[in-house]
Write a structure and sequence with these properties.
With about 290 residues, the chain is an alpha+beta fold. The protein contains 10 helices and 14 strands. It is elongated and about 80 Å long.
Length: about 290
């Protein structure tokens, strides 16, 4: 039994290794894949054959031969599967369905008054039903981005001060309801990964990412890899910058978030400006009972 499980794990590892190699090197051939991944030519041939049969990979042409048979080139088929992304914000849920290359197929924002875990799960279930015609059986999984301290390995939001969530197993809750693999991570960490994948920082090994909104978040990349400890090392917003400053959502005083978030900056502008238009704008935004200013 253990041997069978080990073989399944190795098969999955090899598949991911080869898929990453094909994705990162569009039009690569089997021999080059073997050199790139360190897998044996026989293993590459077997696994690639299975990936072609599944429709995830296709033979898309031939390269010039340096002697012997011309190498057959391989490419990922991005439309074969899709992924659902969910950003849990303060008062809203942003959904986006993408193909394997990250191209958005459809996106939608749902506003929430009661942002309990059950409400998030229920709304996600509704979205899955409404978008079923687009997805069919092709939904690979669900990725969730949420503010706060997140244990991605366990799929648990340890503490999100903005949402008032503690120890919420959101990945498990959505996975059980949807029947799909679900992954959750801190929203700024997910933003950083997206920038490495589709943004302008893929040529930089050491980066710091900072976001400013309802809260202030941060992520750190060292030697080209996202620095994840599960202990909130990137929670820049909760560094104390003023010993007797404003009360923060985390319970402390003087956090960067409590001194410089959008809402705090807007309040400062409101209290100091002489322009009636700005005061009216601030008052109207507060009247909507949302925390974000767009």
């Amino acid at each position: 039994m253990a041997s069978k499980a080990s073989k399944e794990i190795m098969k999955e590892i090899n598949e991911k290794l080869l898929l990453r190699g094909i994705y990162s090197n569009e039009g690569i051939d089997r021999a080059s894949l073997a050199k790139l991944t360190g897998l044996s030519p026989a293993t590459v041939t077997k696994v690639v054959g299975e990936l072609i049969e599944s429709g995830l990979v296709a033979e898309t042409g031939v390269a010039d031969s340096t002697g012997g048979r011309k190498p057959i080139l391989l490419s990922i088929q991005p439309k074969k599967l899709c992924v659902l992304g969910l950003k849990i914000g303060v008062g809203y849920l942003d959904y986006s369905l993408t193909d394997l290359f990250g191209i958005a197929l459809v996106s939608e924002r749902r506003l929430l008054e009661n942002q309990t875990p059950e409400e998030v799960v229920s709304t996600t279930e509704t979205i899955l039903k409404e978008w079923n015609g687009l997805m069919g059986e092709s939904l690979l999984g669900i990725g969730i981005a949420v503010s706060g301290i997140v244990d991605s390995l366990k799929g648990v939001v340890k503490n999100s001060f903005l949402l008032n969530w503690q120890e919420v197993p959101i990945a498990k809750l959505i996975s059980e309801r949807s029947g799909k693999k679900t992954f959750v991570m801190n929203d700024v960490d997910s933003f950083a990964l997206a920038q490495f994948w589709k943004g302008d920082v893929n040529n930089h090994k050491n980066c710091v990412f900072i976001t400013l909104g309802v809260g202030i978040g941060g992520a750190v990349a060292i030697d080209g890899k996202l620095h994840l400890t599960g202990a909130g090392s990137g929670e820049f917003g909760h560094m104390t910058i003023s010993q007797n400053g404003n009360k923060c959502t985390c319970g402390s005083r003087g956090c960067l978030e409590a001194q410089a978030s959008f809402e705090v900056l807007a309040r400062k502008v409101f209290s100091r400006t002489i322009h009636s238009e700005l005061k009216e704008l601030y008052s109207s935004v507060k009247a909507t009972e949302t925390s974000e200013i767009h």
